Amino acid sequence: MRLIVGVADMKTTSQRDDSIITYALGSCLGITVYDPVARVGGMLHVMLPDSNIDPKRAEMNPFMFIDTGLPLLFHAAYQEGAKKERMIIKVAGGREGENGFQIGKRNFTKLRQLLWKNGVFLNAHDVGGDLSRTMILDLGTGNVTLKINDATITL
User: Fold this and answer.
1) pTM beyond cutoff 0.85
2) Residue 54: is its pLDDT beyond 80?
3) What is the SS3 string spanning 28-65?
4) Which CATH class is domain 2-154?
């Protein structure tokens, strides 16, 4: 089954036939976690780095922000049998627009800070630039594929 992750959304699964996909990552980040032993994976599509800018919105939808959504992604994967020490983390997105707010860069910086603080590190990333990305996590293999315009790459 193909599970679709919308903007400010998250999905996890332990079904080996599943894939998780999110479309049109711009300044947002797509974050995947995968435990190759338990074959549990998840994906989070976050928009902004810090929930302090809008606590009410974060309470309504914690997946909108990295600082509130990332812990929920990990906890959901743990509930399905994943272990922190086996997790493979990959991220894509963080496109830089012309508006000067550097949301993509700030998102990636916040993500790395939170992971580092919790003793977890990125295994692969494809961030920045000016192209949007579609991100797919295949639960059978653990592969993360990006579609960028007409190109397909594996992280």
Assistant:
1) yes
2) yes
3) CEEEEEEECCCCEEEEEEECECCHHHCHHHHHHCHHHE
4) alpha beta
